[in-house]
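Here is one such tokenized protein:
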Amino acid sequence: KFPVMGVRWRSSLTLGEKEQVNNKNGEDKQVVASYWGIKGQEVKKEDGTPWKWNCFRPWETYQADLTIDLKKHHVPTTFLDKLAYWTVKSLRFPTDVFFQRRYGCRAMMLETVAAVPGMVGGMLLHCKSLRRFEHSGGWIKTLLDEAENERMHLMTFMEVSQPRWYERALVFTVQGVFFNAYFLAYLASPKLAHRVVGYLEEEAIHSYTEFLKELDKGTIENVPAPAIAIDYWRLPADSTLRDVVMVVRADEAHHRDVN
């Protein structure tokens, strides 16, 4: 009845994703739907088992560098540095009040915001490259990779803590405000925008360190690591939530250094 909606639905499916449909005889069959309308190549793990994730592929997985310096801090010296630093510090207070010590939910909610700067910066640099007919020096891909990495943090913590209805509503509000504010800040001063992200990542390191303390004290149950995390970070099969928080914290330290 609604062919246009059908096309839009199928075009939104990931490459190689299967949709259950009924044929004329009422029998179920699976058809492959993708944005390009072609069947994707079957992907398998190194051990030959099927790869079950559509949001990332085996060649996008990696092992986090846990030896990275977690205590590195950029001391604010210029006016823009101080503006970025105190802006981030002011944002931490309401976050602490709202989430208290619910670090699992806190991580899930904040990752919905953390994935915004890389996408905004990558988008603006992409447009700048088009306007000026010049190369980006690799920064477009770097920033988009950062945004994707933060999104995978969210996909992981979704398996640990499910958001309540008012938290989902909060995402719409905060993301809408933050996206536009960061967009305008990047137009005004990319250096300021990146410095804000750098200080945000420093705060993220602190939050995940507190998360680890709660796990070690037993306040938060150290449940088995989600399957998506094991495959994404190439973790051992018996990894736990603590192992996941460790690699996520290392990722945040890397983003801090990049910005």
Observations:
- The longest helix spans residues 190-217.
- Residues 1-21 have pLDDT under 50 and may be disordered.
- The beta strands are 17-22, 28-33.
- The domain at 65-258 is CATH 1.20.1260.140 (Ferritin).
